[in-house]
Every structure is written in structure tokens, then in C-alpha cells.
Write a structure and sequence with these properties.
Mean pLDDT of chain A: 96
Function (chains A, B): Formation of pseudouridine at positions 38, 39 and 40 in the anticodon stem and loop of transfer RNAs.
Largest sheet of chain A: 10 strands, mixed
GO molecular function, one term (chains A, B): tRNA pseudouridine(38-40) synthase activity
Shape of chain A: globular
Catalytic activity (chains A, B): uridine(38/39/40) in tRNA = pseudouridine(38/39/40) in tRNA
Number of strands of chain A: 10
Radius of gyration of chain A: 19 Å
Family (chains A, B): Belongs to the tRNA pseudouridine synthase TruA family.
Subunit structure (chains A, B): Homodimer.
Number of domains of chain A: 2
Order of helices and strands of chain A: EHEEHEEEHEEEHHE
Oligomer: homodimer
CATH superfamily of the largest domain in chain A: Pseudouridine synthase I, catalytic domain, C-terminal subdomain
CATH class of the largest domain in chain A: Alpha Beta
Chain lengths: 250, 250
Amino acid sequence: MPRFKLTIEYDGGPFVGWQRQANGLSVQEALETAVAGYCQVDAVVHGSGRTDSGVHALGQVAHVDLPRHDPPGKVRDALNAHLRRHPISIRQVEQVDEDFHARFSARERSYVYRILNRRSPPALDAGRVWWVGADLDAGAMHDAGQILVGHHDFSTFRAKECQAQSPVKTLDELAVTREGEEVRLFVRARSFLHHQVRNMAGALKLVGEGKWTADDLQRALDARDRAAGGPTAPPQGLYFLSVRYPEHDA
Amino acid sequence: MPRFKLTIEYDGGPFVGWQRQANGLSVQEALETAVAGYCQVDAVVHGSGRTDSGVHALGQVAHVDLPRHDPPGKVRDALNAHLRRHPISIRQVEQVDEDFHARFSARERSYVYRILNRRSPPALDAGRVWWVGADLDAGAMHDAGQILVGHHDFSTFRAKECQAQSPVKTLDELAVTREGEEVRLFVRARSFLHHQVRNMAGALKLVGEGKWTADDLQRALDARDRAAGGPTAPPQGLYFLSVRYPEHDA
């Protein structure tokens, strides 16, 4: 059976998250139902990583084995037709080797966290951003955030429920930029702990408000204790941006 | 009573349009209800212009007379608190002279029309863009669109229901640009006819697809007949961007 790589955009708002769960509709279940409608098979759609309820994706990646040798463009259009009732869109389909695995072949993941930073609440971007009314100093957030770049024990920014074997990760890039009323946090790493990006965003917001200095952020990281890490930013500002695989290294 | 100028963002999706109507909730009615909740008065909120059901605003302007001399920032926050149930946000409040009128003082209005131009449907921008799957040539749309700039009889792009006294208007600027998967039409004029922007967007889409040449667009304009004008673009791609008033001319 040919294996297909799917690049997927979704609005996380109506879903319980990426992963199949008994308590509501997940993005994975919606995709597997679309595959069943298209190919009349019960196939597992393997994602590159989970997202929490309310977290969005611009470029989640998954793979699935299909019993049909259709051209990738036809697979994309057929799955999108079956997904019409859901805010999920298959942006790209590629046929890949059978040793490709969306999760285990992934070399790097990137996320963006969007903060709407103005006095008035979001209307058009409700459910798409974290609304922070107090003025944020994006430059201070960026500068302090460089403390988090590199090889660290990220226990301070790790959810209690995290299933990773080790809290030690390498954060390859962190950038905070302002575009008008919006402050954006971009992060890139091989992998992230559960809630790591939202927890880092919550701490950096304290820096942006002037409630924390860079030294406070350093002390929080060094504490290796979630209780020292500040608030968890809400899910609706987070976007799973992209995944990089070895074949794209060139 | 002091007069306040409101700059308003809204998601047009859940509303019957800007103007109060018997058949459903309008943006105007939601604002007037918020004013009543804040000041216990039945005040009319005068908009700078109507928008159709489904059309969004980033910078609609309105004025209202309030029986309280509150500072503008307090008026903004209080109205936003009363609007919490609706996707409407007061971005700015300014106290203005009593001869200011949101509609009659307006010197210029600008709109953006957003087209998502890719094979896969929108997920995060559903209800926020016109999805066009066929490749659009934004350069050809821009070049042909310059035919519409200037002083013309725009009957071809005027809705049957339009209440303007004359179909002759001056279009001051039209620009079509591509930003990645998105094609954006920007227009600026003292005022527009009913459906004029959506009808121009529909015709320019035909140019972008290669179904119409610039000569076809010229012939459509010259026909002064709506039947010659091509399709009306759907409301959800249209954004009322801003209004310019004389005091800001400097």
C-alpha cells in the first residue's frame, strides 16, 4: 500500500486536540473518518506530534497508508471533499517511501505563538490569539528569551502530564517580533515537551509587562520546577507551523 | 451631550449587516444595545456607511452622542465590556466636535478584498476570505484594474438595490497584490456604490483566471449595465478598512 505524507491546516477550536479521545472529536478522528469515506478502510493517520484542544496548525504533518494508487493531487482533493464539514484542510499530499514516519522521521518542529497586544479585545481574531491589554516590550521579551535557547533541563516549562522520558531538550531558535498590534513568538527545536511553548510564552509575557527581568527568567529556568515558571499561555494563540524531515535538508 | 467618534472592528458573519433590520441582529443594533447598557439611553449610533451581511470591518467609523462626559478610554472599555458576547470591538474612541458626522463628514473610504488562492480550502480563514482554487495572475488583475481608476459611470458594478442618486463615482486607487497564497484587492474612493467593490472583485477574478482580458473589462465598464459585469464576489472576503475625515488631512 502506498504511503502518503499529508500537510494539514486546522482550526483547533472545535476539537479535543490532535489525538483520538473518548470525550469528543479530535482532528485525528476527523481525518481517519475522511480516509474511511474516501477509501473504505480503517487506516490510522499518524501525526508528527500532538496538539492540545484549541491549538491550531498551519503545517501539521501526518502519514497514512492507502489501498489506492491515486495521484497525490487527487488524494488531497478527495480528502478535502470528505472534510468539508470541519475546519481542517489538507494543504499538500506527497507520496513517500514506506520508511517515512511523520513522528519518528521528524528532525525539527516550529511553532508560532500570537499575542494581540492592544487595549481593545479581538473581534476578527477571537479564538486565534491571546489578548493581552497591557503594553508588551517585544524587544525585552526577545532578549530575555535567548536565555532559553540551547541545551537545557526545561522542567520549569513542562506540564505535569508530560510523557517525555527526559526534560532535557535543545531549543534551536527563539524570536519575538512585533508587527503592529501583534507580538509573535517563534520557536524551533527538534522536539518540545508538553506545554513547553505555552509555558515559555506565559513567562515571556511577564518579561514583556516588566513584571519579570531577564534574571527572573534565568532563575525560573534554573529552578527546574514548574511552580517557578509563571502562567501557561492559553491554547488559542498557538500555531503548529511546520515540521522538517531529512529529505528536505538540502 | 458630548459626541464621540468610534473606530470599530467586527466579524460580519453573525450579523445581518451594519444597518438595523427587523430580520435579525445588526452591528448597529448590537452597538446601540451596548450604549443603552452603559448609559441607560436610547441613542442612535450613526455609521460612516453600511456593510452587507457577512462583510467585515477593521476600521468602520461611527458617532454617538452620550449623556456622560467620560474620558474616551473609559467609553471604549465600557462599550467593549457590554459587547463581550459579540465579535465587535471598539478599537478607538475620540471626543469630537458636534458638527462631526461619521457619514457626512467622511472624505474617503478604503476597502480590502481578500482572496485565498490555492487548491485546498481555507481552514483557519474560513468565513474570512473568498476561496478561489484556480491560479490567479495578480499582476494582470492589477494592470487591468487601472481601467476602473478615475471618474466613471459605474452602473456595470452597481447593485440593482443601490440607492445612490448617481452611478458616477471617482475611484482614486486600485491595487492588486499577492502575498503568498493570498491575492488582495485594495480600493480607495470618496464613496462607493452598493456592491461596487464586490462586483469589481468578481470581474477582476475573471481577469486573473484569464477568462477576461483588459479589453473585456473596458467593454464591461463601457456597457453601463450590471448584466455585463460578471459575478458578484461573496461578502466574506470584504473588509471595510478605514475612513478619512478632514481633520486628519494634514
